[in-house]
Amino acid sequence: STFTYQFDTATYKGSSTLNTGLFINGEFIEPSEKGTIDVINPVNGKLITQVSAGTHSDIEVAVQAAKKAYKEHWGLKVSGDERSKLLHKLANLIEASADELGALETLDNGKAYSHARNFDVMGCVAVLRYYAGWADKIQGKTIQTKDDKLAYTRHEPIGVVGAITPWNFPLAMLIWKIAPALATGNTIVLKPSELTPLSALRLCPLINEAGFPPGVVNIVNGFGHTAGQAISENMTIGKVAFTGSTVTGRKVMEAAAKSNLKPVSLELGGKSPAIFFDDVDMDQAVKWAALGIFFNHGQACTAGSRIFVHEKIYDEFIKKFTEHAQSLKLGDPFEPTTYQGPQVSQGQYDRIMGYIESGKQEGATLHAGGDRFGHEGYFINPTIFTNCKPHMKIVQEEIFGPVAAVMKFSTEEEVIGLANDTMYGLACSVFTQNIDRALRVAHKLEAGTAWINFTNSPEIGMPFGGFKQSGIGRELGEYALEHYTNVKAVHVNL
Ligand code: NAD
């Protein structure tokens, strides 16, 4: 079946037709068992379309296609140079379709179109080009041995890789996995989030157009407990790359351990601290604090959701931060001036509202927001809680919405303790003009990424991932490559 969509906004005009089936072996097919996913428009809660939902047997068909493609047309059969060319072609095709992909992302997820197009989609282009550059630079080492034998290492592809992704950056999270997996010679079976299946469907014809052999990339929409579980426990898949919540990450790892003991890389949740010392440039500080928590409607794993402010600047910070939050424009995400659209789904809306209620009940002060914006859809006003205490749910748990928990501190030692008092360790940010203090604190915080005087901005060449329960392994940069290859030690008796 297909879905024809039209956009009549100032930013994008045009129409296109998507095939809503399962993309396996280079073509769209219908699932083996009848099943669909309702795609809901978060702006008004109305049904946009339905797409096919794959289940266990469809995942198995996709895996067999990926295995065959690996053996016959990909893996060690294709030079790095050729893989690089195809990744570049895909990058160019995505760039040429950026308006449309951005529009689909906005329609499905509710994020502002300007962000979807320029940040999400163009970010995908950059990631593909970055890993296209690595495809012919996968290198081992020669290693000196004591008796002068020849000893060297090779980084070989794993084979078929599985990937499961979330809805907050739907296309970007797919590409963060496709690019390094293909650059290193693997084939892949991906399951996008059931909340945002559309941009992945638009990607499928571009994969064919780029010239990837059928079966190298397979995209099977479906639900987590069926299609997602099937990937985690598949006996042929040699590795699973997962991005999503810590609760689901644990299930993926458990299924991987119970099946064929496949390695997993897990990019999970966060509750990242943003620390503002008393010597910050206040206007910059407030701008970054807002970007930290309100960018992408608070639906960023690295969101700076716990904001620690030095007591000397606390009152001024709160005043300016509140003004900034209240100046952010909410509304139709296709409107060019909109900063914040709706949350992704009714479920997320309810969850966030539940946290706001718990914050009030646990005694935090609701300083701004906390309520619905407009009359329909899943919009929530930027929300600021002050007087937060470490034990509160809004301080400990990932809300994944536009809700900031602000706390006051007096000493460096105290704030390091407070900031590290969490099961998460994805990111942190430190704001101060004092370089010694900035580095000292950044080094003591338990997090995979530390930003100094800015925040919430991953860099393609840098590793991205978490300490503690924020995950295992790293995406992006050279570091991601090791998760998509097996190292072989070759010993030669000369
Ligand atoms: P989620 O864990 O609910 O779902 C993620 C994916 O897992 C979806 O595709 C879902 O269908 C699938 N899934 C659900 N149950 C499954 C199961 N039993 N077995 C296998 N797969 C299953 O997360 P979400 O709500 O889609 O995304 C939000 C979460 O993702 C947040 O916690 C956020 O912090 C995290 N996230 C992390 C990063 C990062 O890089 N660390 C990036 C983006 C999002």
What does this structure look like?
- The protein has helices spanning 56-73, 80-96, 98-109, 113-134, 170-183, 198-210, 224-232, 246-258, 282-294, 314-327, 346-361, 393-396, 412-419, 435-444; strands spanning 2-8, 13-19, 22-24, 27-29, 36-41, 46-52, 150-157, 160-164, 187-191, 217-219, 239-243, 264-267, 273-276, 306-310, 365-368, 383-386, 403-409, 424-425, 427-431, 449-452, 467-468, 471-472, 485-492.
- α2 (80-96) runs antiparallel to α4 and α9 packs across α10 (314-327).
- The mean pLDDT is 96.
- Strands 15-16-17-14-13-19-20 form a 7-stranded mixed β-sheet, sandwiched between helices.
- The longest helix is centred in the first third of the chain and has 22 residues, at 113-134.
- The radius of gyration is 23 Å and the shape is globular.
- A hairpin with a 4-residue loop joins β1 (2-8) and β2 (13-19).
- With 494 residues, it is of the alpha/beta class.
- The site of nicotinamide-adenine-dinucleotide has 30 residues, from α7 and α8.
- Nicotinamide-adenine-dinucleotide is lined by residues 164-168, 191, 193-194, 223-225, 228-229, 232, 243-245, 248, 251-252, 267-270, 301, 398, 400, 426, 466, 471.
- This is 1-pyrroline-5-carboxylate dehydrogenase.
- It comes from Hygrophoropsis aurantiaca.
